[in-house]
Amino acid sequence: MPPTARPVVLDVDTGVDDACALLLAATHAGLDLRAVTCVGGNAPVDDVVRNTLTVLQAAGRSDVPVARGAERPLLEHPRDARHVHGEDGMGDIGWPAPTLRPDPRHAVELLRDTCIAAAEAGETVTLVTTAPLTNIALLLRTYPAAARGIAEVVFMGGAVQTGNATASAEFNVFHDPEAAAIVLDAAAQLAIPVTMYGLDVFYDPVVATAEADELVAVGGRGAAELAGRLIQFQCERFGRDAATIGDAGAVCAVLEPEGLTTQVLPIRVELAGHWSRGRTIVDRRDWSGDLSHDPHGEPPVRVRVALGVDHQRYSALWRDTILGSGGTS
Ligand code: RIB
Ligand code: CA
Fold first, then answer.
1. Structural domain of 25
2. Does 228 map to a domain?
3. What is the CATH number of the domain that holds 154?
4. Which residues line ligand 1 (CB under 6 A)?
5. Number of domains into which the chain is organized
6. Which of 164, 172, 199 to mutate to test ligand 1, by most ligand atoms within 8 A of the CB atom?
7. What is the pLDDT along the chain (329 residues), one digit of tens a residue?
8. How far from 163 is each of 157, 160, 173, 279, CA to CA, in Å?
9. Degrees (nearest 5) of the Cα angle 126, 263, 193?
């Protein structure tokens, strides 16, 4: 791994597209994957741990510690997304169970230890979250000193324009709205820059079935074959000839931020609305009169919001990296 590789930690609810994100983070030479932490979301947390270990084993990354985190949201009732990701949470593709074992620490302790160790070494890690933010909320409120070792949080979640879990809310934020609100508040207080990779860009980078077939043909039960099988699963499930790399786009945004069109904007998370709970309310108004007469006042939190993406660039980055990673786990 080159000395210039960027230290990253992923917090995941593996999930088909979390697996796509992990495969990129585990195989790209420009990233130094220090740890992966798991949270309940797409699937129950124990399935998330198993799926995450499966992916890292396929990528030949037994060196990366994986820890089990929050089983359920801070307040909201737990829901899963197995209608999207399959019963096992990773496409029911029948991949062999992992032989790797998780780290004995809780996810919050592994996050704390990894961030503080980085700070003590004069480094910082980029925290990429592709899941409900429960672990991150617990980390920042329990161990705020960990912030010294965090360069930035890039979170897949929220949206400016739309929802998917509901008409108004994106799944990761809807799953644990309190956690999302806490993370945004704590990051602002701790001066941690935040980038939101939301639904406005999430679906755009896609990989075609023909490309997936090429990945599967590499064989050897490695990263490429697994990546191809995951794309094939999504294409079959949704009856399409291409599938989004989803969460992997947030890792692409770390590698090539110039592929995003962004703006730093005020943001709030709706916690009380009946039909709008979990909505990320991004304020795009640009007339001072509106703002100065707004009884809500300006939110204390501003994040860098992804408004557009060079989707062909990110699709090629993901596909070419994993295709080039070879076929053996
Ligand atoms: O809304 C999309 C997000 O919800 C992705 O992270 C996907 O994996 C699911 O967790
Ligand atoms: Ca996810």
1. 6-323
2. yes
3. 3.90.245.10
4. 13, 15, 17-18, 41-42, 81, 130-131, 156, 164, 170-172, 246-247
5. 1
6. 172
7. 677 899 999 999 999 999 999 999 999 999 999 999 999 999 999 999 999 999 999 999 999 999 999 999 999 999 999 999 999 999 999 999 999 999 999 999 999 999 999 999 999 999 999 999 999 999 999 999 999 999 999 999 999 999 999 999 999 999 999 999 999 999 999 999 999 999 999 999 999 999 999 999 999 999 999 999 999 999 999 999 999 999 999 999 999 999 999 999 999 999 999 999 999 999 999 888 888 899 999 888 999 999 999 999 999 999 999 999 865 55
8. 10, 9, 10, 8
9. 30
Q: Which residue reads 């590499």 in tokens? A: 218
Pairing of strands 280-282, 302-309: unpaired
CB atoms within 10 A of CB 207: 27
